[in-house]
Amino acid sequence: MATELEELIGFLSAPSPPVKKAAVDIVRDLTGSEDGLHSLSNYANTVLPSLSRLLSDDKEVSEPAAEALVNLSQNAGLAAKMVEMGLIKIAMDMLYKLGSSITQLLVMLLVNLTQLDDGISSLLQIGDDKMQGLYVMKLVRSFCRSSETSDDPFDHVGSILVNISKKEEGRKMLLDPKRGLLKQIIRQFDSSSLLRKKGVSGTIRNCCFEAENQLQNLLLISEFLWPALLLPAAGTKIYGEQDTSKMPLELGSALSIDREPVKDPEIRVQALEAIYLIALQEGGRRALWSVNGPRILQVGYEDEEDPKVMEAYEQIGSLLVHGSESEEPSTTTSK
Q1: Domains of the chain
Q2: Does the keyword Repeat apply (predicted)?
């Protein structure tokens, strides 16, 4: 005999819209508690496909279904089942379906699913030579276009980009000059959204783990890269002509006027770690000197009060003074 929960899950497929709506609301509410999540996880093989089918329904049903999936996907075991059943493809198809009303929820679902290696591989479309990278290109395009709206449903794409750049295949895809994805992403660093800024800085930082083999591809976009990395580390001082005359225009102009400092210490640390990873390479150090980077770091360090950020400055300072030969291997990992 079916349990109450089995009956409830069965109602998710009911032909009657009011019954289906009532069932999905109850399931969504259950996913909001630990006990509810645990109970539903025992029926993952039926509840997950049922909820995923409801994503294409009207908003009053698709929205609670998407909310339930977002909550359930916070459990790594359930997220793995979702990836296995092809939910990344379903979410991407729904995301670009005309008139979709659950965009933000679908993006948040992708954030959770790409915390798993298999989820990243699925989003990168690894193994599908014809389609590989298509999903990522679509997401980057949406991320860059939607920044002009105040209520931005694609803000969380920055977190997806951080996730996929933890994996070598993801970093290589973002750094591929033919695709030009990292250049588009970096230009979003000017956004007023902290979530978006963090996504961009975390993605750049992770991509810099490829500096040993892909330094040229990083420096190809130095016009955008150096401002995104050095402005957060520049402190609040207005720089004089003696300093700015040795910088490219895009850096010197920004530093010669009063500006809003980057207040979030995590972003400052990420920027400094990215600079460190570039500076580990001889060509990277030369490029940093060529934009008067060490002077910017010196001024920024004098302004800094956060111990973790100061430590990140000191790591670069030591490298610039002594050269990479005498450095211990970096213990930094992509995150």
Answers
A1: 1-124 (1.25.10.10), 137-142+155-322 (1.25.10.10)
A2: yes
